[in-house]
Automatic annotation (TrEMBL), chain A:
The lineage of its organism: Bacteria, Bacillati, Bacillota, Bacilli, Lactobacillales. This is RecQ family ATP-dependent DNA helicase. One of its GO terms (molecular function) is ATP binding. Residues 28-195 form the Helicase ATP-binding domain. The keyword Kinase does not apply. It comes from Secundilactobacillus folii. SMART domains: DEXDc, HELICc.
From TrEMBL, chain B:
It comes from Secundilactobacillus folii. This is Helicase Helix-turn-helix domain-containing protein. It comes from the Bacteria. Residues 260-327 form the Helicase Helix-turn-helix domain. InterPro entries: Helicase_HTH.
Length: 478, 359
């Protein structure tokens, strides 16, 4: 068995740290004793370090199942930047030749990132099996439960895939999971005996604020006001790309902040530039959809504002977890306009097929350009489900989504402590009283008192260097 | 899903001002031709009229353009009294012509756009940006940095390129080549170009940010980026070999399709049209279309007109249309002769190039 000394030694050599953050060593020890492990650690706690270190100590392939291509690419780049070249992400965005090259050279890799869909492909599965992964990691494991049947059904196959891989040691990680979700993850992974390493999900340095509006104009005006007053950097989440673009434009015009939109419609060059400008503090505020964030490791984000409601409290907690990773006082503000839940409901409902759609798609094989739902229903049919079973499952699913949204709405409306509500929701004991807690425990949101009021307005516009200066600086001739 | 679009082939970019640029106050132009050129349809009819409209440099410039967007702009211009449309032929009104004049003064006017057709500009731009970043970080001796995300073949190419050149003084070479290039541009353009670049402590600015800083529409900013990249390729081609010029390796393109090029080469080598058709399993009419495409896209001296149009036939046609404007020629005026339509069209192409290309 691997000793703690070995873990500490590698931690020092590879990461330059002397101590682990809470939960990391416990998870490593659990894995070292051969225990399949579910680690629930808050965002920013360093979940990646656990499997990176495990791979470095055991010299075996670490197979990471991850939900988003952009996240996988970020993780590979982070490993590369730290000097680990033996990392790759196998994604649907690759060309045939690139894909083939990676599959043929799996034994040269130490870390391989795949989506569940990619891993379900027989050729990929066989190749991975042949190199005998030493650790299977299910990253963002709550996706098994929250994204399950209506969005990414391949997540449901992960338990079966694990058996096909010869039941490798497994680590499931997530930042947010209620007791129900934890049980769901274990059940779907067929790992009911997995050890649990749980750290409090609370982030005491994030003040929780909810503001309610009756008119859209009031909400927009308040957003402009907040962005003008708040210390930056900050992130504003939207559920529509169009709105993110519009508000980025508005905020650029009405505040002295440097603002940009970030979402999946941007080309690769623009995405890189926006992300790097933000990382290097050349942008103050990002107007993002949920595409932004999962892989972003910027520790001085002072505020996260939600302009639209997310689908559930798990997503909300995940997204506000981007704030204050440096431990400094930060704030999460949810701007709620009466009726916003209908948009959320609509977005949520739109992904879950109705009975008549199920009947139709059950009888009609999907074509190349068929709706996503057609493929979804066909997936279940191919996996031996009967029409009635599918209908029942999706009815249950719809109820579950509606319940998740209503719990988020309770968070919005509850007149008592928001933090206590969250802790109750995630089934965790109420921690000791936080001094700057939430809008209901204070007299509203006082930025001055939180130390989040901007002291000097940020300089507007970027430096107006001429081209000679830029070229000289680029190639170190200045 | 294919690899995410890049800046050069981004989403549809047309705006109404751009459309005005494609139109004429004197000759009605076919809106469908303008649209098909932008989308990149290579039918002989589209290419022929694209040539007559001096629009060939825009072939495939806006592949995402939809009918809806195009019609929306047309409607708006008609509504504003700038455009008059009969069937789907559009001509600028007097007010429209005035606006066109103003736009020619105020809007960015491309200088090297035809270069697009001779190079894989998109791949070149990705290579150039990544190479610039690599060289910049090298000049600061940074080993760990977040690299630009580019298509895999581009990444592989730059790795090999770096292995080949890393011992040279890359930063001095990049500095010198870029300084020479930017010096010959107007200050505004040089600044625009330099701000797009990515390197040490410079994440680079996005096209949208540059558009806002310069008071440009996104359509105009996109055109400026494309044209400046074209100018840069043109500049590099005239330079002696360097690490920067090596980024163009393997990216040259013919302005005509591969199939048309194949037909043209066989014809130049002396094969008869029927023989080409037989060997390539093409209809003879397709073989002729290939030759017409080549004639339209290539300079006069690169196409064997004399082998397809005898001096006698050329004289005959010249006499027939001596007094008429080229765009008014009608094939049915030749009903008494043995001339085939494709020969008539080829003669039109030749005449168009002889008279109009000087414009």
């Amino acid at each position: 068995m691997i000793s703690n000394d070995q873990f500490y030694q590698t931690l020092r050599l590879r990461f330059g740290f002397d101590s682990f953050r809470p939960g990391q060593l416990e998870a490593l020890t659990s894995l070292a004793s051969g225990q399949n492990t579910l680690a629930v650690l808050p965002t920013g706690a360093g979940k990646t370090l656990i499997y990176e270190l495990y791979g470095a100590v055991t010299h075996q392939l670490v197979l990471v199942v991850s939900p988003l291509i952009s996240l996988m690419q970020d993780q590979v780049i982070s490993l590369n930047v730290r000097g680990e070249k033996r990392a790759a992400a196998l994604t649907s965005q690759m060309s045939r030749s690139e894909h083939q090259w990676v599959v043929n050279h799996l034994k040269f890799y130490r870390y391989l990132f795949v989506s569940p869909e990619m891993l379900s492909q027989p050729q990929v599965l066989a190749a991975v099996k042949a190199v005998k992964p030493g650790l299977l990691v299910v990253d963002e494991a709550h996706c098994i439960s929250t994204w399950g049947p209506d969005f990414r059904p391949e997540y449901l196959l992960l338990g079966q895939i694990r058996h096909q891989l010869g039941d490798p040691l497994t680590l499931m990680t997530t930042a947010t999971a209620t007791n129900r979700v934890k049980a769901d993850i274990k059940r779907k992974m067929q790992l009911s005996k997995a050890a649990e390493i749980i750290q409090p999900v609370d982030r005491p340095n994030i003040f929780l604020d909810v503001e309610r509006f009756e008119a859209a104009d009031d909400k927009d005006a308040r957003l402009v006001e907040l962005v003008s007053e708040l210390r930056t950097p900050g992130v504003i989440y939207f559920s529509s790309k169009k709105k993110a673009n519009e508000m980025a434009e508005l905020l650029n015009a009405k505040t002295s902040c440097r603002v940009a939109a970030y979402h999946a419609d941007l080309d690769a060059e623009t995405r890189f530039k926006v992300q790097q400008q933000f990382m290097q503090d050349q942008l103050d505020v990002i107007c993002a959809t949920s595409a932004f964030g999962m892989g972003i490791d910027k520790n001085n984000i002072r505020f996260v504002i939600h302009y639209h409601l997310p689908g559930d409290l798990e997503s909300y907690w995940q997204e506000i977890g981007r704030a204050g990773r440096d431990g400094q006082q930060s704030v999460a503000i949810l701007l709620y306009l009466s009726g916003d839940e209908q948009l959320s409901q609509f977005l949520s409902d739109a992904t879950v097929p109705q009975d008549d759609e199920i009947s139709y798609y059950f009888k009609h094989q999907p074509q190349e350009n068929s709706a996503e739902k057609a493929n979804l229903i066909w997936f279940y049919k191919q996996h031996g489900y009967r029409e009635e079973q599918i209908k029942l499952a999706f009815t249950k699913r719809r109820e579950q989504r509606a319940l998740a949204l209503s719990q988020l709405m309770t968070y919005v409306r509850i007149p008592t402590c928001k933090r206590a509500f969250i802790q109750g929701y995630f089934g965790q004991p109420i921690a000791s009283k936080v001094s700057q807690c939430c809008v209901n425990d204070s007299e509203g949101l006082d930025l001055q008192q939180l130390g989040l009021l901007v002291s000097t307005p940020v300089s507007s516009g970027t430096q107006q260097a001429d081209w000679q200066t830029i070229i000289a600086q680029l190639f170190n001739f200045s | 899903m294919v690899c995410k679009r890049t800046l050069m082939v981004g989403e549809e970019t047309m705006d109404a001002a751009e459309l005005i640029g494609y139109l004429s106050p004197t000759k009605p132009r076919r809106l469908r031709v303008i649209e098909n050129i932008l989308i990149g349809k290579r039918t002989v009819s589209t290419l022929y009229w694209g040539m007559r409209y001096h629009q060939l440099a825009w072939l495939g410039y806006d592949k995402q353009l939809t009918r809806q967007t195009m019609d929306g702009h047309v409607e708006r211009l008609v509504h504003d009294g700038l455009l008059s449309v009969t069937d789907t032929n559009a001509v600028l009104t007097k007010k429209g012509a005035e606006r066109q004049q103003v736009l020619r003064q105020t809007r960015y006017q491309p200088k090297a756009l035809p270069v697009r057709l001779t190079v894989d500009l998109d791949t070149f731009w990705q290579r150039f940006l990544l190479a610039t970043q690599v060289v910049s970080e090298q000049s600061y001796q940074t080993r760990k940095y977040y690299p630009l995300q580019v298509a895999w073949p581009v990444k592989q190419m730059i790795k090999k390129w770096y292995q080949q050149f890393y011992s040279a003084d890359l930063s001095a070479e990049f500095n010198a080549v870029l300084t020479r290039f930017l010096k010959q541009l107007a200050v505004r353009e040089a600044t625009f170009f330099s701000r797009l670049l990515v390197g040490h402590d410079r994440p680079g600015e996005t096209l949208l940010q540059l558009a806002q800083q310069n008071g440009l529409s996104s359509s105009e900013a996109h055109l400026m980026l494309t044209d400046l990249a074209c100018q840069f390729v043109h500049f590099l081609r005239a330079q002696s070999d360097s690490s920067v010029k090596a980024l163009l390796a393997g990216l040259s393109r013919q302005p005509i399709s591969e199939s048309a090029l194949n037909t043209l080469n066989r014809f130049q080598a002396g094969q008869a049209l029927e023989e080409i058709g037989h060997q390539r399993r093409l209809k003879v009419s397709t073989v002729k279309e290939h030759l017409l495409e080549a004639a339209i896209m290539l300079p006069v001296d690169q196409f064997p007109y004399e082998k397809l149009l005898t001096p006698q036939l050329q004289n005959e046609l010249s006499d027939q249309f001596a007094t008429q404007n080229l765009d008014d020629w009608q094939f049915n005026q030749l009903s008494n002769t043995q001339v085939a339509f494709w020969q008539f069209r080829l003669f039109e192409i030749l005449r168009s190039k002889q008279t109009d290309d000087q414009q």
